[in-house]
User: Which sequence fits this backbone?
């Protein structure tokens, strides 16, 4: 009986061990992770070449003082938006008001003299007709009248000039836009009569020129026969900033310099940029992405699937054995904001990991699930 019981216990132990081994085998099979992958696509795309440049406000004007005197007031906040005709500064105007009064008095005096000589000339004409005065006396009266009339024109011009100078004591905005810091503080002397003195600058940031240069030997292949017709050579050229902007911006290429810069061997181009969201500033550095050809079979992957290490960009590719393969790649330009051109490393139809990039490793067995 004891031998029989011992045999039963041994059989049960062996069965338990076999069942445990079977469960371990099942767990090992279930441990192969499911990984989302995508298939590298191919498409015909327009290729671009990036050229460094800068932005220049289309509307820009210096605010200047054209009279001499102390700067009395500043009527704006630096950096604010001002409108055309808005009063920005006032300069002391005492001497210019005096000049207006003097010119007005001179004009009144000249007008009085003209009236006197006009009456005298009319009387001389009647007297001459009655042979009461000589021809010489008549001519002298007429000459005096013409001189008086000329004096009126001179005095009127002087009064206009005095009024113009007085008006310049109130400095107004020549254009609408954002104004810089004032270059002369209130209380300081402005010597604008000697030469216009810069007080501030206004930038109309609604429209910019994106200026950049291309190699003269690439002009024909890039531009062809375009330019100089008034029509855009290229439209919607992407702009790339060193720090990404909240919104995307493009330029329309209208201007091509008629001459090559002999010192650099380059040709100046300019594209029009609309600052719709008021984020761009005069002088900002930018790269202009200029179309340079067509790639009929470009390999495209999701840009988010790319990783970077010390050797550069790489992808985790899943081979035919469903194993992950670390694959260095050479990348090209961004396409449609989310796809990246792959110039070297993978081919059309290759599968690559798109999620859980931090958990996979080279040589790892996976169960790939294709999700484009």
Assistant:
């Amino acid at each position: 009986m004891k031998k029989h019981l011992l045999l039963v216990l041994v059989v049960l132990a062996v069965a338990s061990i076999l069942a445990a081994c079977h469960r371990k085998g099942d767990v090992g099979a279930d441990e192969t992770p499911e990984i989302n992958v995508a298939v590298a696509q191919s498409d015909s795309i327009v290729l671009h070449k990036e050229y460094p440049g800068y932005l220049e406000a289309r509307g820009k004007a210096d605010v200047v003082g054209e009279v001499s005197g102390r700067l009395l007031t500043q009527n704006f906040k630096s950096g604010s938006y001002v409108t055309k005709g808005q009063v920005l500064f006032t300069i002391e105007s005492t001497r210019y008001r005096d000049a207006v009064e003097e010119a007005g008095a001179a004009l009144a005096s000249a007008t009085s003299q003209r009236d006197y000589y006009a009456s005298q000339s009319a009387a001389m004409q009647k007297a001459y007709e009655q042979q009461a005065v000589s021809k010489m006396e008549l001519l002298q009266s007429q000459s005096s009248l013409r001189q008086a009339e000329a004096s009126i024109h001179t005095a009127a011009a002087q009064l206009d000039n005095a009024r113009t100078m007085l008006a310049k004591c109130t400095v107004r905005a020549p254009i609408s836009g954002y104004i810089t810091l004032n270059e002369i503080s209130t209380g300081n002397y402005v010597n604008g009569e000697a030469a216009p003195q810069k007080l501030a600058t206004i930038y109309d940031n609604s429209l910019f020129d994106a200026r950049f240069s291309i190699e003269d030997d690439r002009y024909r292949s890039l531009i062809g026969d375009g330019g100089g017709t008034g029509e855009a050579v290229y439209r919607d050229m992407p702009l790339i900033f060193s720090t990404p902007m909240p919104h995307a911006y493009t330029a329309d290429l209208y201007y091509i310099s008629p001459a090559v810069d002999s010192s650099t061997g380059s040709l100046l181009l300019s594209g029009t940029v609309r600052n719709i969201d008021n984020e761009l500033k005069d002088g900002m550095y930018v790269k202009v992405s200029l179309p340079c050809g067509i790639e009929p079979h470009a390999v495209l992957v999701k840009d988010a699937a790319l990783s970077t290490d010390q050797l550069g960009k790489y992808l985790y590719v899943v081979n035919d054995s469903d194993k992950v393969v670390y694959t260095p790649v050479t990348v090209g330009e961004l396409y449609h904001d989310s796809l990246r051109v792959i110039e070297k490393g993978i081919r059309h139809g290759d599968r690559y990991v798109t999620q859980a990039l931090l958990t996979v490793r080279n040589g790892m067995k996976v169960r790939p699930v294709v999700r484009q």
Notes: Residues 94-129 form the longest helix (36 residues).
